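Consider the following assembly input.
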Amino acid sequence: MGALDGKVAAVTGAARGIGRGIARMFAQEGAKVVVNDLGGTPDGSDHSTVADEVVDEIRSAGGEAVANYESVATVAGGQAIFQTAMDQFGALDILVNNAGILRDRTLFNMEEAEWDEVIAVHLKGHYCCSRPFACYIRDTNRPECRIINFSSVSGLYGNFGQSNYGAAKSGIAGFSRVLALELAKYGATVNTISPGASTRLTIHLREARGLQTDLDDPAQSPAQIAPVVTWLASPAGQEITGQIIDVMQGWVGIMQQPAVIRSFSSDHFWRLQDLDRVMPALMEAKQQHDERVKQQGAPTKLD
Ligand SMILES: NC(=O)c1ccc[n+]([C@@H]2O[C@H](COP(=O)([O-])OP(=O)(O)OC[C@H]3O[C@@H](n4cnc5c(N)ncnc54)[C@H](O)[C@@H]3O)[C@@H](O)[C@H]2O)c1
């Protein structure tokens, strides 16, 4: 008995890294899987049928999967991924928007194409793939559907040299919060993962900091993300929506969402001399909050 028996899933960018681990675990847990991947280079150029390798792995292990090579960055691509699930398996229950690329530059050097392509794959890609599925959930009232999106600390905290990627990943967190509200009445959940793992997108960055790569290390392996995504996708995850789950370094955590920490009011428009008092008090409240959250967020070892 698998946690995803009877479910149909589409996982984008599933030929490599984190997506591959998710597609494989979904199939192990009984889901029929559309393995989408454009099969390009880390910056999104070129294309290939590398998704076939994951489909072969799943089939050899006795699972059911089909490949799709479309780009998530176009409306036609997103529609084709959805249609592949319909044509091959007759339904769709779970969408994992995982596909991603990097084109890192500081803003001083960032060309329009580098901005556009990263926004297209990540942010527009979430729109292109989610919209056909969301309409299907609404039109068929299909119960217990799941959308699991991929953000990043780059967008949630900020990371030097990634204004395109950080903007897209922050936008994905906002997109997810809105979609969670729009799909709530159909019983569908929408959550966001902030992952960390050694993959072709990150290994060179880790190695530049002198860190060794060990893909068998559970705190580094891209496979560490799959159990959390599988749990969220399973019936056990029905009550969790609109959340950002942090999965990296062998830990799993929940992230804070934007919220007002401390505020003041006044009967008149703010005077500059009022703000001379208010702004330092706000900054102090923020600093105390950050320190408290940092302590509370440190992982507790599970027995
Ligand atoms: N690895 C990390 O530490 C990390 C950190 C934060 C966020 N992420 C996010 O996690 C997701 C997975 O990244 P990964 O590290 O496994 O990278 P990866 O490069 O190993 O895998 C990404 C896959 O997406 C595919 N892809 C790229 N553009 C596509 C497109 N237009 N259409 C379909 N497929 C496309 C690639 O071919 C590749 O197989 C990405 O969204 C990434 O931004 C990863």
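Strands lie at 8-11, 32-36, 64-68, 94-97, 146-150, 189-195, 244-248, 251-254. Ask yourself how this observation constrains the way the partners meet.
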